[in-house]
Amino acid sequence: MRRLIQRGAGLTTRITTRIPAGLRVTLAYALAIAWTKALAMLTVPMLTGMLSPADYGRLELLSSAGEIGGLIAGAGLVDTLFRFGGAPGTPAGAQTARVAGLALMISCGVLALVAALSGQISAAMPLATPRGDILLLGAAVALESAIGVPLGWLRMNRRAGSFAAITMLRATLQAGLVVALVWTGHGVEGVLWAGCVSCIIIASLLTVRQARETGLGFAPRESLRLLGYGLPLLGGGLASFVLGTADRWLLAGQVSPEQLGHYGLAAKVALIVALVAQPFELWWYPQRIALSRSAEGIARSGRVVGAGAAALMLAGAAIALAAPTLVGLLAPASYAPAASMVAPLVLALVCQLLSSMANVGCYARASSTQPMAVNAAAAGVALIFYLLLIPGMGVRGAIIATVISQAARLAMFATLSQRSVRIVWPLRRLLATATAAIATGAVPLLLAPGLNTTLLGGALLALTALLATVTILDPMPRPRILRAMEA
After folding, report:
1. Per-position DSSP letters for 177-214, written without gaps between them
2. Which of 22, 241, 324, 355 has the most C-beta neighbours closer than 10 Å?
3. CB 140 within 8 A of CB 196
4. Alpha carbon of residue 27 to chain centroid
């Protein structure tokens, strides 16, 4: 297994040897994300073909449970590693070992807790869920920190080839197991088995590798200090869960499992937008705080993030416009209602991703309480609107509430971040791009399918592409873009 990862990392490096360093890292991340998302999307037609909308809705609820469990098990340790970790042999290197050791202890503790409480958790689920499903899901969730911290270490050291190889191996293992198990009639349980087995393999591999490189430290007092930094960020992650998939739990008691399945499929189609954003974030996130400490770095931040935001808006417009076609390709006719849900979910996702690009000033502070406060406030907005809108409007109410709360979160992060780190954004060009993108996404919602609708949507998408290109290229000539990505 280790040789396979080394060969994959070596192949990635050889392919990109002649590309500038910063851009090479971005392309490696892009390869990993594209591979992962492509495999996930390729399994969707089989899942929707083999599972009824009701079963798909149950799987969606379990995925939501896995998300909240993963956030808790992660304990904010990846961000803690970024903040305190460093090279072996240094004081910061000792902290890296302690973070890695703490991650392993948390994984073991969560696994024991899930095993003890699986019966109670199963009984508390809003949709009927066997205890075995809870155990399988819990085992995968418990390993979240044991996987996330070593991957974060690779990102810190810009070892994009290794990161890409491991990420692609995990995605391939899981997708292959999903296909084999669901195809042989194991249904939702087969999907859970696939996730559990792939997580065990990857967590074991990464733990051994991390122990060899940095060691695993166990220091109770220092662990409390590390958790003191990470746990407030956990609160932010929990708030992000409320803003993300927590509405499934409220919907489970208000709408049919079939409608929940439609909603889950629409969310997966909208997540295609992350293909553009995630490689950029993986490259940019670990270095953005350091760059915010100098005038040159702040200027560079405005240029690079402005280009990333424009590309994100263009991707969102394209996915929203193509939603009816994508849903038709990915699922049988019983899932057709999902098409009308995609565009507003794309809008919410774009707001969420823009928040991550615009919040550097909040994370550059000595304390992590400001990001926690913003996420908590936005989660409060989401909960209020969920409770107000879901009982009367069902899935449509959940979508409206999500859009409102994500827009509020973006506004709060952008405003507070600018107070700490004054970054000049290309606001006029971004606003023009956003306007064209929203108009493009609204076409399939407001107009009936037909030639005129297609021509209008295509024209608006072309306008969005033009405005996004201007935003990306101006005021930098192309060579300066490449130099800005070199690091």
Report:
1. HHHHHHHTT-HHHHHHHHHHHHHHHHHHHHHHHHHHHT
2. 355
3. yes
4. 18
Contact present, 334 and 389 (Cβ < 8 Å): no
Rounded to two decimals, the pTM is 0.73
Whole-angstrom Cα distance, residue 69 to residue 238?
10
Q: Say if CB 130 and CB 122 are below 8 A apart.
A: yes
User: Which runs of E-coded beta strand occur in 22-70?
Assistant: none
CA dist., res. 435 & res. 134, Å (int): 44
How many CB atoms neighbour CB 26 within 10 A? 21
- Contacts of 184 by beta carbon, 8 Å cutoff, 6+ apart: 190
Residue 103 has pLDDT above 80, yes or no: yes
Sign of CA dihedral 53, 55, 58, 60: negative
Joined together, the tokens standing for residue 338 give 């999902």
Task: Name the residue with higher pLDDT: 141 or 305.
Answer: 141
Is residue 323 within 8 Å of residue 457, measured between CB atoms?
no
Q: How far apart are CA 192 and CA 175, in angstroms?
A: 11
Torsion of CA 71, 290, 102, 353, to 10 degrees: 10
Helix (H) or strand (E) holding 32: helix 21-50
Q: What are phi and psi of 368, to 5 degrees?
A: -95, 15
Q: How many residues does the chain have?
A: 487
Q: Tell me, what DSSP letter sits at residue 83?
A: H
Tokens of 23: 């851009």
More confident residue, 81 or 93: 81
CA distance 151 to 171: 14
Average pLDDT for the chain: 81
**What is the distance between the alpha carbons of residues 321 and 338, in angstroms, rounded to a whole number?**
14
DSSP-H helix ranges across 421-450: 427-446
Give the separation between CA 396 and CA 356, rounded to whole angstroms. 26
Q: Is the pLDDT of residue 477 over 50?
A: no
Query: Is the predicted pLDDT of residue 479 greater than 50, yes or no?
Result: no
Q: Please spell the DSSP secondary structure of 68-125, one letter per residue.
A: HHHHHHHTTHHHHHHHH---TTSHHHHHHHHHHHHHHHHHHHHHHHHHHHHHHHHHH-
Percentage helix, strand, coil for the chain under 3-state DSSP, each rounded to 5: 85, 0, 15
- Model pLDDT, residue 34: 78
Model confidence pLDDT, tens digit, residues 344-384: 999 999 998 988 887 776 776 656 677 778 888 988 999 99
CB contact set of 470 (below 8 Å; sequence gap of 6+): 429
CB 429 within 8 A of CB 310: yes
Give the SS3 label for residue 421. coil
Nearest alpha carbon to residue 178 among 377, 360, 369, 45: 45
- Name, in order, each residue with C-beta under 8 angstroms of 187's C-beta and a sequence gap of 6 or more: 50, 51, 55
Asked if residue 5 has pLDDT above 60, the reply is no
